[in-house]
Specification:
The complex is a heterodimer of chains A (397) and B (148).
Chain A lengths: L6 E12 L5 H16 L8 E5 L5 H5 L1 H9 L5 E5 L5 H14 L5 E8 L17 H9 L3 H16 L3 H15 L13 H6 L2 E3 L2 E2 L8 E9 L1 H5 L6 E7 L30 H13 L8 E4 L4 H10 L8 H6 L16 H5 L3 H17 L12 E7 L5 E7 L1
Parallel strand pairs in A: 2-3, 2-4, 9-10
Antiparallel strand pairs in A: 1-7, 1-8, 4-7, 5-6, 8-11, 10-11
Chain B lengths: L3 E4 L15 E5 L5 E2 L17 E5 L3 E9 L20 E7 L4 E7 L13 E11 L3 E10 L5
Parallel strand pairs in B: 1-9, 7-9
Antiparallel strand pairs in B: 2-3, 2-4, 5-6, 5-8, 6-7, 8-9
The chains are: A alpha/beta (397), B mainly beta (148).
Bound molecules: zinc ion.
Chain lengths: 397, 148
């Protein structure tokens, strides 16, 4: 399981998730400094800075690479800024990886940070019927959780899932999050707590849906040659998949009010989410049977179950059985969201996909404390945002 | 005084006659259907079509999934913050002939308990909101048979 496209995660760092009421740059700098310290490098050693953008914090958020480079002190390092909705962090990692693999730099810093408003994410202002994101809010009031609700309802009607299964995901992830110092909610939840929370989008309740948070994550990435001078047992990124859907995309996805039509061309067998993982497995030369753990985007509890199937860990409709059998718990056959997931973090959009890689790095090094997955060697992340963005990253040791 | 009716987006559904339907376009080269309508270039990567014919979409389909809005959605959704929030249903409808899924609000009175994946539903005229000048019209989704 080693290929010439691998790069190394030399350092990982985070600013704890929460609602801190400060500027996102402050969070990003803290995460970056922690990642540098973890890598044993100085800021001046960094040749390339890849920022993951936030669209909620004005111009500095759109030029995140420059913003963090300036905040840490201009050094002449080259920069990039990536926006890819929830996959922005992975696109920033992909940007840094391309520089390293092309031999244009040896060592890069990737940073994502956000300060998020309370409540539903909403589109930017103005009257814009040409913008699907405007259309879905104006015509339907279809918030992000409305889409999650529709996916969850299909699990109930097609696979016999229950709202109790969904609550089990929250209970599991909250328990994992208790052992994570960077998690926002370090509180145990019971199935009764979930059932007592109000319905947001039937069948999902408030406790089934992830909140919006402030937070930051950073990684120091480098070539294998550079890493050899700093470590003898590197944690490697073996695949970065950021594929887009193929036409016709046949599942209703954020922010669209209709799917592509399959009147002329039949849809491919793999859904968009499954194709993200499939490309990652191909690139890494592994399969789902090789995984020690998975960090997936549990924007809702039910969505974690969809992802387990999209990752090929079990067949369609069987994720509830895995969950009920305890296979996805820490200590189970395939722990899912050992970090506590978005259920414990809340979403800090540009930081989240980087945070998934931080968690896998710590898990594979055996540094995850009370949430450690014993003997973890291979991990995968999965993430999806709107407008055809998504990612899946394979981390190996 | 009766207010004029105004479609919330022009050209997305019929506004006269008996047979209400959504309006899409069909690429004359490959036959792919588009809703919302496409009129400049085809979205099928294997097709270079640039001509499109307007077509009415099927008026009946099956429920792909459904949910509701338990909380008031943010702007640009239009609602009166002084009126108590009442959840409405959102339905994803699979149209067989067009090979696509389209979302719509459930017709007034249609709740999540009235729906099941696979049920037959129809697309009917609806009202999104009213202001001083207009009744802003849209499409709604309604079960064809009331469940027992
Ligand atoms: Zn065409």
């Amino acid at each position: 399981m080693s290929n010439d496209r691998e790069i190394v995660v030399l350092g990982a760092g985070m600013h704890p998730w929460g609602k801190w009421g400060r500027n996102f740059v402050e969070y990003g700098v803290k995460a970056a400094q922690d990642a540098l310290k973890d890598a044993g490098l100085a800021w001046q050693d960094i040749q390339f800075v890849a920022g993951a953008d936030t669209i909620r914090n004005g111009y500095p958020g759109f030029v995140a690479g420059a913003t963090f480079a300036q905040a840490l002190g201009w050094t002449g390092a080259r920069i990039s800024s990536s926006y890819a909705a929830c996959a922005s962090g992975s696109h920033a990692i992909a940007s840094a990886r391309a520089q390293i693999l092309a031999g244009l730099c040896d060592v890069a810093l990737v940073v994502g940070a956000d300060a998020a408003p309370k409540g539903f994410f909403a589109p930017v202002g103005g009257d814009r019927p040409d913008d699907p994101d405007w259309v879905r809010f104006h015509l339907l009031g279809a918030t992000n959780p409305a889409y999650f609700g529709m996916y969850a309802r299909r699990r109930i009607d097609l696979y016999g899932a229950s709202v109790e299964d969904f609550a089990k995901v929250k209970v599991k992830n909250a328990r994992n999050g208790l052992a994570n110092p960077n998690a926002r909610y370090r509180k145990a939840f019971t199935a009764e707590d979930v059932a007592a929370s109000p319905i947001v989008c039937d069948p999902l309740r408030l406790m089934d849906i992830c909140a919006t948070s402030d937070g930051a994550a950073a990684v120091v990435l480098c070539s294998k040659e550079f890493a050899a001078r700093h470590t003898t047992d590197p944690v490697r990124i073996s695949a970065v998949s950021t594929v887009t859907p193929t036409f016709p995309s046949a599942l209703i996805e954020l922010p669209d009010i209709a799917t592509d039509s399959s009147a002329a061309v039949a849809p491919q067998e793999l859904s968009f989410r499954a194709s993200l993982a499939h490309a990652a497995y191909e690139e890494a030369g592994i399969g789902p049977e090789d995984l020690s753990l998975a960090e997936v985007y549990d924007l809702s509890t039910a969505l974690e179950l969809d992802w387990i199937e999209d990752l090929g860990i079990c067949a369609r409709g069987e994720a509830e059985k895995l969950l009920r059998d305890g296979a996805t718990e820490i200590g189970g056959r395939i722990p899912v969201n050992a970090s506590g997931g978005l259920a414990s973090f809340g979403e800090a959009v540009p930081a989240q996909a980087i945070a998934q890689v931080c968690e896998l790095t710590w898990q594979l090094r055996g540094e995850a404390g009370d949430r450690q997955v014993a003997g973890a060697r291979v991990g995968i992340t999965a993430n999806q945002g709107l407008f055809g963005h998504g990612s899946s990253i394979v981390v190996t040791r | 005084m009766t207010k004029d009716h105004k479609p919330v987006v022009p050209g997305w559904f019929t506004t006269s006659g008996e047979d209400f339907s959504l309006l899409g376009t069909r690429c004359t080269a490959c036959g792919t259907v588009f809703f919302p309508r496409r009129e400049t270039f085809c979205g099928n990567p294997a097709c270079s079509g640039t001509e499109f014919a307007e077509i009415p979409l099927s008026r009946r389909g099956t429920v792909w999934s459904y949910t509701n809005a338990g909380y008031r959605p943010p702007a640009p959704f239009v609602s009166d913050p002084d009126v108590e929030w009442r959840p409405y249903t959102i339905v994803a409808v699979r149209l067989e002939a067009e090979g696509l899924i389209v979302l719509g609000q459930g017709a007034p009175g249609v709740g999540v308990d009235d729906l099941k994946v696979g049920d037959t539903v129809e697309i009917v005229p609806g009202v999104l909101y009213e202001d001083d000048e207009y009744v802003h019209t849209t499409w709604n989704v309604r079960p064809v048979e009331v469940r027992a």
